[in-house]
Each structure stands twice: as C-alpha cells, then as structure tokens.
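Example (one chain per record):
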Amino acid sequence: MKKFLLVLVILSITSIPFVSAHPFTEETIPSLASNAPAGTTQVIVFYSEPVDIDFSEIKVFDGEGNQIDNRDTDYYENELSLIVTTPPLEDGIYTASTKVLSKVDGHLVPSAFQFAVGDVIVDPSLLDQEIKGDLVFLPEAGGRFPGLVGQTIVLGAVIASLIIWGTQNKQIIKEELEKVENFHHGKFMSITGIGLVLVFISDILMIAIQTIRLETSPLNSIQTDFGIIWLARMIITIILLGIWFEMDRKKILSKKNQIPMLIASLALISTSSLIGHGAASGQIAAVVLDYVHNLVSAVWIGGIFYFVFTLLPTFSQLKEKNQEKMSLVLIPRFSIAFIISIGIVIITGPTLMWLLESDVGIITESVYGQLIILKIAIAGIMIGLGGLLQFKVQKNAEKNFHSGKISVHKKLKNSLKAEAALGIILLGVVALLTNGTLPAGEIQKVDAQEIIYGFQTIEFTDNVKFDVDISPFSSGTNTILVKVSDFDGNQIHDSNQIKVKLSNPSKGISPIEIPIELTKQEKDDPIEFQGELTFGFSGEWLVEIEAQRSENANESKLLNLLVKPRLGDIQTQITEYELPEDAKPLYPLYDGSNSIWISDASAPRLWQFSLETQEFTSYSFDGLTTTFLTQDSKGNIWFTDTPRNQIGFLDPNTKEITIKTIPKLDPVISENTPLFIQADFDGNIWITIVNKDRIVKYSPDLDKFEEIVLSEKESLPFALAIDDDGKIWYTTTGT
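Predicted structure:
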C-alpha cells in the first residue's frame, strides 16, 4: 500500500506548473524582433514571476544616453508585467534598462535590452551590450548559508534525539544513566545553541544585504514581501532562542520539553520554502514539495551532526564495553531513519528539478545544472560512506559481538565526521542553488534572437581576398555578395568572373553551380558579384568560391557553413482548452478518429474532446478514478481504475462502458495496484500490477486473465509499450 501511495504522489505532483528562481525577462514590447512604429509611447516588459513595484523600474534611454521616459513605471496587466510611458519616439535605437525586485525570493535583478523605432537598421553588435543579471547571487547565498546550516542542525538534532535516543532502551547502561543523561543534555544544548546562533547571524546578514541592495532603510526592506517573511523568520528565531534558554535550565532532556523546539524548528524551515523556488509558482503543492525536501534533508544531514557531536561524545562517557554496545545498537536505528530520508530526498529533489526545467540539454549547459551535478556527487559520496558504515563496520561488529572484540565507536566517529563535513559543503551548494538563476533564466530564448543577421567572412588564398556576405543565412533562399580583390583591397586586373558552387556531401547533393552576376566594377575598387543560394534544409553545407583568372591560375576557397532553420519555420502554437468542470486530467489519447480521450484522476469518468466541435463530453461508470488509457484494434478505449482494482473499456459507437475486475494475486493479503495499460495487435490487454511484481494479460474474446510473474522481487513494474514486432516492453521502478 505504501508503494502505491508513493506512485500516486509522483503522479499527482506532475500537475505542478513550471516555476522560476528569479524574475527574468520573458517578453518585451517593443523588441529587436521587429521595429516599432515611429510615435511609440510605451515600453512593456513581462517577467517570469511577480515583482515588487515599489522597488522595480524601467528606464528608457535614447542613442545619446539621455533618459527620455516619463518615470512612471507601473504594473501593466498584473504583478508579472511592468509598463513605462514615453513621449512619442522618433526613428532610432533605444535602450531600456530594468531593475526588478522579486516578490518571492527578494532578489533584485538588473537587465537591459535594446529596440529600434521607425526606419532604422539594428547593428547586430549592439546585442553584445546587453546587461545580464547575476547567475548566482553570491552575497545573498553567503548570507543565507549560515541559516541553512543552523536550521538543519537544530531540526535534525531534535528529530534524531526524539526518534533515536528518546526511544532507545537504556537498560544496558542503567548504572551510568544519570551521568550519561546529564552529559547528553549538555552536548545537545551545545549543538543546537550553535545552530541557533548561526540562524540568528544569518537573519541579520539577510536583511542587511537586502537593505544594501535596495539602497533603502532596513524598515523599508522589512515592508517588502520578502521582508515580511524575514520578519516571521526572525520572530521564530527569537522564540527558538527563548525555548533553548528554558531547556538549558533543565539538566535532562525529555520528549515533553523538546516538542516546542521541534514545532518552532518546523516553522523555521517553512520560511525557507516561502522564499525558495517552489513558491514562485503560487501553487501550494509546489511549496509543500519544497518543504518536504527541506525537512527530510534536515533529518538526514542534521541527524549526522547530532550523532557525531552529541551521541558519540555521550557514549565516550561510558565504560568501554558499554560504549561499544550502545554504538552498535544505535547504528540500525540511525540507518533506518536516514535511509527513509534519503529515499524521499531522491524522489523530491529530481521531481522538483524536472518541474522547474524538463529540458536536460539546457540543464547540463547551465551553471545551475553544474551545481546540481556537484550536489548529486557530494550526496553520492555521503550515501557511499553511509553504506560503508552499514555494511562493513556494523556487519563486522555484529560478527565479533559474542567474542567481545567490538571496535565500532572510533570507526563510527571518523566516518560520521567526514559525512558532517560533506554535509556542510552540500548545504553550501544548496545556498548557491537557492540563490541562483534556473536554466530557463540563464539560457533565455529572448525575442531579440529572432532577428537573422546573416553571415560575413573574409577568406584568403595565395593571391586573392574574398569578402563574403550571405543573408539572411538560414534555410531557404539567401543572397550571396562576394567582393574579390588583392590583399590591399585593389581590383585584380585579370579577373572579372567568379564561380560559386553549393553542395551537401552528407545528403548526397553534388556541387551545383550558382548563377552569379557582376554588380560592380570600378577602377581601383574590388569587383563585386551577387547571386542567390538556396539551402534546402538546415545543417552543414559546402560553398566553393573560385576566382576565374586569365593570366594566372584560378584561385578558390571552400567554406564549411552550418545553416540554421528560420525561427518562423519552427515556431509552435499552443492552444489551451478548459474542461467544463473541476477535474484532474491525467493521460491523453488520440483515437485516430478526430477525438482526444482524457483520463480523470479525480472521478470515475472518461473525457472525450472532439477536435471538430471543440467540445468536451464525459462518460461515468461505477468506480473511483481513471489513470492510463490505451486503444485496442476495435477502437475501444481501455482504462485502469487503480483504487478499485479494475479495468474497463468504452465502446465509441455505443458509448457504453464495460468493467472487468482483476482477480486477486498472491499475496492476496494485499490489494492489487493496477497502473499502466497497453493493448497489443491481437486485441489482448496488458496491465502492470505495480505492487505484486506481475503483469496481467486479459483476453477479451475469452474473458480470461493470465498473470506473468516477473523474475525480480520488488521490481515495481510501471509503464508498457509495444514495438513493431508486437513485443511488449515494460519498465521497472524498483530494484
């Protein structure tokens, strides 16, 4: 049942929309994509997340650097867009400088773009003057890093103390229990005290850096959206310090006096989620996912700090034999808690990253992606050290237990110190990620890139210089201009003709001679030629240019060109259709007959969307939900109803739904969890039973189920596919 819930959690969070780390520019009006008409009186900028109007502005400068806007920056449509008005703009090149404050994470992001008005030509080199915001906000990362470390230590120590030390049977040390409890109390208060001091210092640094960034007073900084969350964080920090001083007065820790610190610590990490990546979406589910990730990370890393700086020093106060026994006894409890935490981290981390940016290519090319890889590498090393502790140190100690030759304490201490150091480094990377720009903001596909600037080059042979200009230099028809001269730019006296040949060897296209005309021939000036090149498709093309000479050998140059497609040819239009009532559409299926069928995770129904009428129709049945869909050779639409352990199909002709219950499978003590469904070429229906390591085949003609048992235990079969040969392929998400 737990595995089934895990699968449903993964499926449900796929509805969380894309979010961003900082407000980067998504669209500008005007832009370099096309010239704005003379007389334009406004500049509009759209952002990826809400911005604070009180600390955000757009400035417009003319070609001489004079600010010419009306200084009236305001929201345009909503908090995601700004507008500034200007006097009617004349023909020319203008620069818009922007500075916006994120309402989510409090980062002040500067940027700039240029645009043309009227009948002017934009020089491509102007793009090099674009001002880009920081990819990683280092001062903010430095300010928040101590807080991340501190809150991780405090929360991890409290939870580890409750579930590891607080529930441990201490009979074997009952003679030394009072001394040990007092010492444990002191160490616990020391480690949590250090953590709270780090959090307090971080809080001060955060508001100080924000105040300097905004060039305002601390009071004004606190009145921003970020400042309000900071104020809540500071209040929680002060409450935690008060709780700490009260706990320090008591000499023994109890579950009762740790509960207030636990509650306040859980509230403290929520403030990190409220200024993190997930909060930018405005969706509660995204914030919850980020919060869970932060929580279990604290249990993992903070628990390591507790074990190495509180428990192990406490055990060192025991007699050597008891010291080794207690160390050995607590390793399994320690391991179970952290294996669960690591498992959740492994799920929530990549899932959240996928929601932020699903384009793996962009991720790997970005600084953010490189930090993610570094984070995974550090976490991998920590997990490896944990595995070494579990499978080598513990196993060897268990073997030597009866002989009395146990040596766990020292090895455990050294291993966990190394993990604690790596944990601090890992939190440093997290601070950079939290204060870094996501790939979509770093590698922006801005409108200005839609302008095609052409290709220019100067090539030399032994005695001739070719000045080549190809425009617009994209797939389709292009104009080629060639100037032929000697190295000093003078006309070549024995050449008044060139040949241009176009070829693509990789596609088997032999050299094609291009008609070239002489367009300019004046004394002492280079001879100019013009013709038309047609690149039939994007990719690598070879262009050979040969100067025909009458008194000397002909001279030629071969150009290897990478031609890109026209952006207009690869644009995608997205049209959205709203369902007529509340639903959770999950899986779409095109039936080849002008309809899209959609499963609904919130109700026992199928949705049909007609491409012709663009209307939705729902079909209900006796069940709980629909998840995945498939279509058989007769056109029937099949679905799985996972919670009810049944499959069914809808006949598109009669619109009747037929339900089939899947037989109970071993072990019958637990319910089946049917998930994915796939029809084969013979009309059979295949279903994965995710929690039983089985795939079920249903034959509609025989009305019979057949189970296929997978060879590996805990394999968790998930998705199915069928190839051209009719073979059924499946994926496993378990071992």
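Caption: The domain at 453-565 is CATH 2.60.40.1930 (Immunoglobulin-like).
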